[in-house]
Amino acid sequence: MRGFDFAAPTTIQGALKAAKGKKYKFIAGGTNFLPDLRHTHDGLPQLVIDLARIGGLRGISMAKGEVRLGALTTMTDLLENKLIAREAPILPAMAAKFAGPIIRNRATVAGNLIDGGPAADLVPPLLALKAAVRLAGPGGKRSVPLDKFLTGYRKTAIKAGEIITEVAFPAPGKNHAWGYYKLARRNAMAITVVGAAVVLRMKGGVCQEAGISLGSVNPTPIRCREAEKILAGRAVDLALAQRAAEACREASAPIDDIRASAEYRKLMCEVLPRRLICQALGIPLDQG
């Protein structure tokens, strides 16, 4: 294996300048990049650019009604940050199931998104929160809704020379209900068989807005838009939760692999959303 050059800029502009005109690879925590080195078929980059020293990519904040996660926010940050615990508790619930402590200390928000994998644990909660990805590159800054950022199996809408600077989502508010579940073969260090996330903005007993997503059952994690429409503007009961769950199942296109069959995954695409909606709203699952 031949070597590659390495750079560790301290500013966003320094990172963009370093990448210009080269076959490069940006890394943050490196938890995906290092294993990929053993399996790459496209050859090594000429230059690896470590973003970890760029202070402008760090921090969790809230402004103008939205929560902002710096690109270098780690899973441990999501697990421990008080603002996140208050505004979006679905994220620490996800982080608690993410790999193990050593990986959580290194793995970043940007790294989990840029990999584009169907089983990325962070993506379903962020999709349910209706997050957007903020980017900076040679053409300036832009923002892309997360569901548009993921374009295919391990593919994203990022352009040459761009980096993720932050991920932002509207604060769900005090009256939101949520649910998250990672179905896997074991409790830790496991790839997701089916992931499901639900965020419901409530007013009284009426769902004002719904965010529902699935992971590991399509080439990319998806928002279940038809299921969201079924709940929006309605008082949710078990029958309505069932209709939304059936729409989730219809939106999925799972495959067979070594972790589970497509048939089992398809069933779980109905079971998990129904369970999460009902648990979030205190609806008994057994009303017989």
Model description:
- The chain is 33% helix and 27% strand.
- The mean pLDDT is 94.
- It contains twelve helices and 15 strands.
- The protein is of the alpha+beta class and 288 residues long.
- Strands 4-5-10-6-7 form a five-stranded antiparallel β-sheet.
Describe the secondary structure blueprint for this structure.
Elements: E1 5-7, H1 12-19, E2 24-27, H2 33-37, E3 47-50, E4 60-63, E5 66-70, H3 75-80, H4 82-87, H5 90-95, H6 101-106, H7 109-114, H8 123-128, E6 132-137, E7 140-145, H9 146-149, E8 150-152, E9 155-156, E10 163-170, E11 176-183, E12 194-203, E13 206-215, E14 222-223, H10 225-231, E15 234-235, H11 238-251, H12 262-281
Parallel strand pairs: 1-3, 2-3
Antiparallel strand pairs: 4-5, 5-10, 6-7, 6-10, 8-9, 11-12, 12-13, 13-14, 13-15
Helix pairs in contact: 10-11, 11-12
In short, what is this structure?
The chain is α+β, with helices and mostly antiparallel strands. The chain has helices at 12-19, 33-37, 75-80, 82-87, 90-95, 101-106, 109-114, 123-128, 146-149, 225-231, 238-251, 262-281, and strands spanning 5-7, 24-27, 47-50, 60-63, 66-70, 132-137, 140-145, 150-152, 155-156, 163-170, 176-183, 194-203, 206-215, 222-223, 234-235. Helix 11 runs antiparallel to helix 12.
Q: Any descriptors?
A:
single chain; 288 residues; alpha+beta; 12 helices; globular
